[in-house]
Design goal:
With 433 residues, the chain is α/β, with parallel strands linked by helices. The protein has 15 helices and 17 strands.
């Protein structure tokens, strides 16, 4: 297929009258539209105003979509313990699959082709099935909680790790490698040392399996971990083996100098979630400091109850604006840097190769956007437009691994109306709504 328009190949490369040519699951050409037409005269053609790499949601909670809006204006630990965890505990397998499907449809329809998804303790297989069905690229993981968790979510560490291994054997590498696994302890507050060390052992025993957890999102969380272990959060995770290039830490807002050195020295990946951090009043992550040290930073929406949207364009805008006002520096986190975080940085954080840019030999993850309308006129700089002006509903076309999974409001594999209807029913049941 030839997908043409103003091609934003990566944060630094734009082809004004360009085209991306795909053959099967790979990109075989990126360049001028005229050359693509000459070289591939028999290919199907689609044209859009802007063509870009699929965006990466490097930290999302798909199954929390049923809780969108239930816990506004609450601090993190209250938000989690009084609202979100009880919702997760009440969800059965069908509700979990519906919620995950709803989340993946929102992502695909907003230009997100890849997610790093932190599921829940129960019914993780249902979310894996939803990812396979919808066509999204994803690294998913069952949540581990073996300490001070609410009824319905706490489980023995060995049992949780055993179920995780079963999921690895069934789903890691599924759908032609489009689906992969991350061992996913929720955070150090709800996991014993045995659980965290078992996470490292399990990840090490399976090729290509990563670790994904929350870290230092909130000051109370950091204080709780330090009181229990004698170490700050990231330092404790390092002690139990949960740092390194196969580890992705969401948030990392409250880190001290030594912890930032640990993240850098171990090549641990970080994911910035600006909207969630603002909504929960968690703080402002030192993103520029991480980037200056050479740390890979991706971008994530987190979950719908602490963001209310999985729109990646909103998150790019928030990331840049928050950095500018925090540092009183209008040059902080420019559009090109944020776009890199939302594409190549996120792909690295999620552990996918040849994803996050439009290049020959890369996976055919391509999105097409419309700039038809007052908000999108004029477009002086396509990267600036994508970061500061575009919305998820500007996306008209989403391709993953060479398959068109979304086009002009229609999803290829799933009846979106049926999913949204069923999701509304489940949400009403679960929230007494």
């Amino acid at each position: 297929m030839i997908v043409s328009g103003t091609v934003v190949a990566d944060a630094e490369t734009t082809v004004e009258d360009g085209a991306v040519v795909t053959d099967g699951a790979e990109i075989v050409f990126v360049g001028e539209r005229s050359e693509a037409a000459d070289r591939y005269p028999d290919h199907e053609r689609r044209s859009f105003d802007v063509v870009a790499p699929g965006l990466v949601g490097a930290h999302v909670h798909s199954i929390q979509t049923l809780g969108r809006g239930i816990a506004d204006d609450a601090p993190l630990l209250e938000w989690l313990e009084d609202h979100v965890l009880p919702l997760e505990a009440a969800m059965g397998p069908e509700a979990t699959r519906t919620a995950a499907t709803l989340g993946y449809l929102e992502c695909l329809g907003s230009g997100v082709t890849t997610v790093l998804d932190h599921l829940s303790v129960n019914h993780a297989a249902a979310a894996f099935e939803a990812a396979v069905e919808t066509g999204i690229r994803g690294r998913l993981g069952k949540v581990l909680m073996d300490y001070d968790a609410p009824d319905g979510l706490q489980e023995d560490a060995e049992e949780g790790l055993r179920e995780s291994e079963q999921l690895i054997e069934e789903y890691h590498g599924a759908a032609g490698g489009r689906i992969r696994y991350a061992v996913t302890p929720r955070f150090a507050v709800s996991c014993t040392e045995a659980c965290l060390r078992g996470t490292r052992e399990l990840a090490d025993s399976h090729d290509g399996v990563r670790v994904h957890t929350h870290a230092s999102e909130n000051r109370d969380e950091v204080a709780t971990v330090e009181e229990r272990t004698g170490r700050r959060n990231v330092a404790w995770l390092d002690e139990v083996g949960l740092t390194g290039p196969d580890v992705t830490l969401a948030h990392c807002v409250w880190t001290d100098e030594r912890e930032r050195e640990i993240i850098d020295e171990t090549d641990t990946r970080v994911v910035h979630c600006p909207s969630s951090n603002m909504k929960l009043a968690s703080g402002v992550a030192p993103v520029q400091d991480y980037l200056d040290r050479g740390v890979t930073v991706g971008l994530g929406n987190d979950g719908p109850p602490c963001n209310n949207t999985l729109d990646p364009f909103t998150e790019m805008r928030q990331a840049s604006l928050l950095a500018k006002v925090d540092g009183l520096d209008a040059t902080a986190l420019p559009a090109s840097t944020v776009f890199e975080m939302a594409t190549a940085g996120g792909a690295t954080a999620a552990g996918f190769e040849r994803v996050g840019a439009l290049r020959e030999g890369y996976r055919a993850d391509v999105i097409g956007l419309s700039t038809d309308g007052p908000r999108a006129t004029p477009v002086h700089d396509p990267v600036s437009h994508l970061v500061f002006a575009a919305h998820g509903d500007d996306v008209r076309f989403t391709m993953v691994d060479g398959d068109v999974v979304y086009h002009d409001g229609e999803f290829a594999a799933v009846d979106a109306d049926a999913v949204t209807s069923r999701a509304s029913e489940f949400a009403a049941e679960l929230t007494d709504g």
